[in-house]
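Just curious: can you write a single protein's sequence together with how it folds?
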Amino acid sequence: MKLRNYLLALCILATSFVKAEISLHGIFTDHMVLQRETSVLLYGWANPNEEFTVFTSWNNETVKVKTGNDAKWEISVNTPKAGGPYEISFKGESNEIKLKDVLIGEVWLCSGQSNMEWSANSNIANKDIEIANANYPNIRLFSVNKRTSTYPQEEISGTWVACTPETMQDFSAVAYFFARNLQKEMNIPIGLIDNAWGATSAEVWTPKSVFDAHSDLVEAHKKVAPNKWVTVEKSVLYNGLIAPLTKFKIGGTIWYQGESNTANAESYQKLFTNMITSWRNAWNIDFPFYYAQIAPFKYGQEFAGGVVRDQQRRTLGLKKTGMAMTSDICTIEDIHPSNKQDVGLRLANIALKEHYGFLEDKEIYGPLYKDFKIDGNKVEVHFSHADGLYNKGKKITLFEISNAQGEWFPAKAKLKNKTVLVSAKEVRKPTAVRYAWKSTDIATLYNSEGLPASTFKTEKLND
């Protein structure tokens, strides 16, 4: 008994002389990008109540920071205009950390399911050429290691790397093409954080607080069936992959997801809107959130794909959102279209015009349903983003009209400037119009920019 107590006391004494070294949150590594011209947090852990210094080379300033008794520390530093490379050093009692080749620019979080995760090595168009030409030293890539969690986490793991043919080929292709187009126009460093995970529904990316406030979303989630690629448990990827990043300053988010929510499509707008809002609240920034509309595909339900596309269109009512239409680059036999270049380009064009003020005269959206006007048994459907509106093919198809009983009938359609006149002999008093509503419907209406119209369904016309 005495020996055991002696050994225990010895261990306690020895432990008291061990000093915890300074450590950084996993997002901070060599070759990283910090958001430009703002206040960013640097943070991590060290010995409780330890004081140490932080040096930033862009302003040649050294500041002191002290941990709390919880062994955590953080410090806010101001970043300059885009540029670099710079160094940041952390010097304490037990160790010193130097971060090298740090760039200042624009940081984007890239998330969603497999169409965002899809890499060049997963078979994209012109794969070999794209990989060989992917030499962009001022585009930096960070892949978050996959992790689920029942509770919100603080730490992640991964490494920043410069974009080269070797590093690009295993990174999100959509994110890479997005950054490539941003850099082409802006000529500044771009940092990409990829935490996409294939087959995920939006529920796994949404925090518990949303479901606590909306019991109907809990019920709707029960329709999402388990799959062999990832758990469908609510909030587990928010906890494991989003929560640990919310103190790291970002410029915006791009998103490609929705295919896994065709089972509960009718609730997607509410879920998606609350998810976006919850992320912004967690970061305490109303950052831009741009997303790709899912493409036509044989989703197993006749109309589920159309419903999700329309729900995504309706999400544009949330401020600082933008949607890239994709129906013209799809194949209904493959849920993973190989043309990731145009998806990245369209998302980049939205960011360039709406967030950064470039491309002032360029149209970045396909035709979007605006409003309607009833004229007898005909309905005038008006579109925005519809300069040069035209139809591919001799006849305009994919429009349907419903009657007072809610029955839908194929409609005849005729173009008139930015308006489509629709009617059906079976319907004397139209109550609603929809377009490209089947899961496999590929839009044939385009504007002069060559961008396809979005799926839509009107509210009841007499409301």
